[in-house]
Amino acid sequence: MSRNEATALSGRGVEVGALVRFEDRAWQVTGLVGGRVYLAAEDGATGCVLAARLVAADGFEVVGRAAPQIPPAAVWAALPLPVRERAMAWLRHIREVETGQSDGGAGVRSEYDPQVLTLAEREQAKADELARLGWPKASRATVQRMRLAYRRQGLLGLVDQRSLRASSPTGRTDERVVAAVLEALRRCRGRRKTTIRQVIELAEQIVAHTHGKGRVKLPSSSSLYRLVKALADPAEPPGSAARTATRPGQAGGPPAALRPAERVQVATARLPVGAVGEDGTTVEVAVTAAVDQASGCVLAAVLHPLQSGPVELSVLLAEMAVPRPLRPGWPALLEEAHAGGPARRLMSLPARIEATEERPAAVPETLVLGHGAAGVTSAVLAVCESLGISLESAPPPPAGARRGALPALQVLAGLFSRHAVAARPPAAAGENRTDEADEAYWSIPQLQDLLDEWITGIWHRRAQEQLRHPLLPRAGLAPQEMWQVLLGAAGRMPLPLAGQHYGELLPDRRCAVTELGIRLGGRRYDDACLDEHRGRGHRFEVHHHPHDARQVFVRLPDGQLHPVPWAQCGHASRPFDELLRRRTGAVLAHRAAGSGADEGAEANAGADADGCGERTGTAPSAAKARKAAAQGVDGTGGTAVKPGGFGVYDAEAEAGQW
Fold it and tell me: Which fold has domain 19-62?
């Protein structure tokens, strides 16, 4: 294997000299300059295309490299935990055989150097190493068979096929506990004196720190002991030194990122402006974003209610790794969202489509997670392992630090809030916006659309202070410009995922297909692809975006994910329906305010009546009548309407009181 082949297999990038297929032709990459890729064909033809458009084009592929295989979340979660851990252990060994790179990044060992040894010699060296470590049936033929199975089927090819029908040994163990044990094992890797009890204590601390003390029920000590032994790498049990242990961190903080998508930071910041929730009330909103450390580009930004907790990491991966033009139904969804926003836009729809096609998207090499920024599950860890994504916890920033993802995200949230307020149409004649309920004008989907447009048209084209070269301190670059500069300087273009991976990365659940379609989250989803499966009682695997209700993805018996749109999605772009939504929210707010005022007036009226009854001889009867009315009984023995409730006007009963 040549050096270029080994480098190409070690990551998701395309270097100068690689062969790609574009527009039904084979091209060789001859240069990367200014965000553009220069291509040359065998017949002497040349071409130049934007990197973002090249990787998002239909039929684009890297010659000689198989497409990434992401294991389905439901299938992976159903596997026994020891089987999953052993498959990931095989993945690290196979990666070292093919590329020479060990899992810890400690360099190329001599027995796996692709520049000196052939692939057969490296397979034999790996078989000898596994035999020394006690792996059963570790022959060269076994290593070769596992390597070829991984090439064909991805991570699931490394799994014993008999385990696909077996139940998980963890039983009913919470996935959050499983993820905490995996994280504890990762932190303890390479420590010689670590015991299983110490791993359990660290996992309990991780659960309490991530989800809150007492909010996740932990299994018994004996169950945790078995869980740790099941999750531990057979070649690296707790207490043994890791062969690929990473070096201790150097002073001066985390390493600087020099390439696009080398290190992507995930952080969450509160948005200073509220939004109209699904129940018509005002909700606080937060934005969770994935910011490229080298260029400052926002690869993903998801708005969500502040009370809903962190965004799942799989949702952020789908947003940052799959270009928008490749997502199913993207042009139609963008057109509907564009029509349902403010009358005056930052850019026209054609200009926005063109700008969005140039927006960067890539699979990150390392994800740096801030405290509580994203939720991590065992399925997400498997996806990250199969894609070669490293996970790190963001260290606490030093006092007074203004660099990093969180300070930049806070600035982004403040500037965007001003834009969201300014985008509101002027108040109509007689309209009052002074009360608190009217401060939240946009819904969360509308704010999300405004944020995507603002990031694409303003933030990515706005020069930033931290994007300055030390030799050019007065020349600040915009994130989009810095991305293009780094592409040419690094000589390596990070690759995104294909369109079908967008639905695979989203969270899944089981739903039935009724005669009216799929019911999920109070919404109905329907499409012609569900016709032959309606009303049969089967429950299908449905992937959905927790913060984008416009469509879901259902896995039908053919094994593919099919997009199913929201049946009433068109209501979001019709002005009359938008007016009804705002009027309904105002009525609900008025009802809530009226109920509180009526309860206070009722209490005051009862107190005044009691006071008058002590001073006069005729007032007690009126006081008793008011008290009876407050209890739901009128003076004639009928039922009265409670304050703040709904009732039917009875003319005869009203006349009897007079």
Answer: SH3 type barrels. (2.30.30)
Residue 90 in contact with residue 155, Cβ under 8 Å? Answer: no
* Domain locations in the chain as residue ranges: 19-62, 263-423+437-466+476-500, 507-572, 574-657
CA distances from 617 to 555, 620, 629, 635, 636 (A): 77, 7, 21, 19, 22
593 φ/ψ angles, rounded to the nearest 5 degrees: -70, -40
CB 515 within 8 A of CB 325: no
Give CA–CA dist 365/266, Å, rounded.
13
Does residue 382 contact residue 84 with C-beta atoms inside 8 Å? yes
**pLDDT value of position 184:** 87
Per-residue pLDDT at 545: 92
Contact assessment for residue 467 and residue 482, using Cβ atoms and an 8 Å cutoff: yes
**Contacts (Cβ under 8 Å, ≥6 apart) of 548:** 445, 448
Q: From CA 566, how far away is CA 549, in angstroms rounded?
A: 7
Q: In this structure, are residues 515 and 537 in contact, taking their beta carbons and an 8 Å threshold?
A: no
19-62 against 263-423+437-466+476-500: fold identical:
no
**Of 291, 333, 353, 286, nearest to 316 (Cα)?**
291
Alpha carbon distance 445, 264 (integer Å): 25
Mean pLDDT by 10 residues, the chain (658 residues): 38 78 89 86 89 84 76 81 87 87 72 89 91 87 90 83 59 80 82 80 88 84 84 70 46 65 90 84 90 91 88 91 90 84 85 90 90 79 86 70 74 90 71 53 89 92 81 82 86 86 91 91 90 87 91 91 85 54 64 57 46 40 44 42 47 55
Homologous superfamily in CATH for domain 263-423+437-466+476-500: Ribonuclease H-like superfamily/Ribonuclease H (3.30.420.10)
The 3-state secondary structure of 317-357, one letter per residue: HHHHHCCHHHCCCHHHHHHHHHHCCCCCCCCCHHHHHHHHH
Query: Residue 140, Cβ neighbours under 10 Å: how many?
Result: 16
Name, in order, each residue with C-beta under 8 angstroms of 287's C-beta and a sequence gap of 6 or more. Answer: 268, 269, 271, 301, 302, 303, 304, 409, 412, 413, 416, 451
pLDDT, position 245: 42
Looking up tokens 């107190």 gives: 607
Task: Catalogue the long-range contacts made by 341-345 (C-beta closer than 8 Å, 24 or more residues apart).
Answer: 341/423, 341/446, 341/449, 341/450, 341/453, 342/423, 342/424, 342/425, 342/450, 343/425, 344/423, 345/453
Structure-derived torsion over alpha carbons of residues 396, 399, 404, 405, reported in degrees to the nearest 10? 70
CA distance 454 to 457: 5
On the 0-12 / 13-18 / 19+ scale of CB atoms within 10 A, 573 is middle
Helix and strand totals (H; E) in the chain: 20, 24
How many other β-carbons are positioned within 10 Å of the β-carbon of residue 152?
10
pLDDT of residue 380: 85
The pLDDT score that the predictor gives to residue 65 is 73
